[in-house]
Amino acid sequence: MNHLIEQYTITTTPKYNFPQPTIDTTLPQRFTELSLHSLKHIQNQPIQLNQQNLQQTNNNEIINTIQLNPQPIPLKPKLQPTTVAAVDTSSIKIGETNTGILIAIRGANVWKQNRNYRYTRIGPFIFHITEENKKEVYNTLQRAYFSTTREGNHQNYPNMTQMPMRIASLLERWLQTMLTKTINNGLILFDGSLTSGTGDTPTQLMKEILSLARKRNNTVLAFSKMTTLRINGHLITDALPENKPPYLLETHGLRTRPPILLLGDVYVARFNKEKYAFRLDIDREIASPQKIEAVEKLLGNESLSQSYPETLRLAHILCTFTANEVIAMQHFAVRDYGFRIINRPDMHKVLFGPFGKGENYS
After folding, report:
1. Contacts of 311 (CB under 8 A, 6+ apart)
2. Is the bond preceding residue 14 a cis peptide, omega within 30 degrees?
């Protein structure tokens, strides 16, 4: 694939290398400040190493009454030059201390323009989260992004296990907003769905992000790598007709219980002959012809191996932590902040021997 990939290094100064330079840097500045603050207040703490990835769970109150239109919507690639941009974030727990957890957060924006890929990666931000500081960390980051009038709508503080995903979600919404403010006449790809009303995705915030995108004539397309939606017992992404791809399958009848709200129309997208398909949510405020045109522009401007956009794939890869990076962050905590590495026994293996598979399997 003869595409150039360019890296832009992000800092906490106003000079960001997004397509346009006028970007509010308040949130990343607060991330840096709180990261350092949370680490400085811990001295000589033992740290139990842990490289378990933190996955976002989805407990949305969805009433699965979905139906698939049996007649696929055929797609024809539109070669009209269009900017394609994508957002993703990741979080990882890199250790435990006597009083909390040591986590890292990172995000990436990737955009393809003139056949070249460019990206901005922000982070990693390392936090030591405890029961004592979690409200301060969450409130400070929230105030850096949300206006004070919104703060009252977020009274339920996340617990310790939710904090990494919640912090990563704040960073992700900020990165999404930056793209909606800097791209015109483009396609903006989100990882996940356009379901709102959860702690990670406040409805009003998501509505504003989609509104900002529409004002600049951008279309938001949200791809879910996994879905629990089923029809006749089968996942909607498995219920594929034998029609020649690329095509979309339109869904009907999907309902949610308040406060959960669907802000997108849900489709099944299959873009090539490989037997891969994805749930695709498209901003429902956009007219149906424009929705189809947006997907056809994606086909004409993007590489879609396994029916998945390369821009979104790169965003995921660029924000995911490697084993070497985790080791480096652990040593950074030891060298600069006096954490002491310890190795607690795995009680599953101590108690059950070869039958003890650890906490990931319990």
Report:
1. 84, 85, 86, 110, 111, 112, 117, 189, 302
2. no
Say how far residue 121 (Cα) sits from the centre of its chain: 13
Give the whole-angstrom CA distance, residue 113 versus residue 115: 5
Residue 61 contacts residue 257 (beta carbons within 8 Å): yes
Give pTM, 2 decimals.
Answer: 0.84
Give the separation between CA 236 and CA 267, rounded to whole angstroms.
9
Question: Are the C-beta atoms of residues 276 and 308 closer than 8 Å to each other?
Answer: yes
In angstroms, the CA 180 to CA 226 distance is 25
* Whether 101 contacts 95, CB under 8 Å: yes
Q: Is 183 within 8 Å of 87 (Cβ atoms)?
A: no
How far CA 84 is from CA of 22, 70, 113, 297, 311, in Å, comes to: 20, 29, 7, 9, 7
HSE of 66, CA atoms in CB hemisphere, 13 A: 28
pLDDT tens digits for 122-141? 999 999 999 999 988 888 88
Indicate the pLDDT class of residue 261, thresholds 50, 70 and 90.
Answer: very high
Alpha-carbon gap, residue 229 to 243, rounded angstroms: 22
Check: CB of residue 221 under 8 Å from CB of residue 294: yes
Interatomic CA distance for residues 108 and 87, integer angstroms: 6
- 298: which 2 tokens? 């994606």
